[in-house]
Amino acid sequence: MILNHVNLTVTDVPTAAAFLEKYFDMRQHEGGNKGFTVLFDDRGLVLTLMKAREVSYPKTFHIGFGQESEERVNEIYQRLIADGYQADPPQRSHAWTFYIQAPGGFTIEVLA
């Protein structure tokens, strides 16, 4: 059995989709709109974003983007910080990792 897709409820579909495209190499399926869109990655992940007025995920809820190296984690972190996003620097935990609040109201972990 294969997990087919994950749906996230977000406050701003276009902004969240653009963020995922720019920093995490997701590709948006044609036909998305302000209320719903579908994103894909090169490994078959299907991530859908659905509009809501409010988003309230549990404190520990997040999605993760594993990277091939610690250097790649650092590169993504530096790009985000240079573009004005705020996140604590990567640190050694269960992996070399950092978390960032994504536009739309959900948390992303970047790790290697």
UniProtKB/TrEMBL annotation:
Domain VOC, chain residue ranges per copy: 2-112
UniProt keyword terms in alphabetical order: Dioxygenase, Lyase, Oxidoreductase
Pfam assignment, any one: Glyoxalase
Phosphoprotein in keyword set: no
Gene3D superfamilies referenced in this protein's UniProt entry, alphabetically: 2,3-Dihydroxybiphenyl 1,2-Dioxygenase, domain 1
Family matches, as SUPFAM superfamilies: Glyoxalase/Bleomycin resistance protein/Dihydroxybiphenyl dioxygenase
GO molecular function: dioxygenase activity; lyase activity
CDD domains referenced in this protein's UniProt entry, alphabetically: VOC
PANTHER family (UniProt xref): LYASE, PUTATIVE-RELATED-RELATED (PTHR36113), SLL5075 PROTEIN (PTHR36113:SF3)
Protein name from the UniProt record: Catechol 2,3-dioxygenase-like lactoylglutathione lyase family enzyme
Organism: Thermosporothrix hazakensis
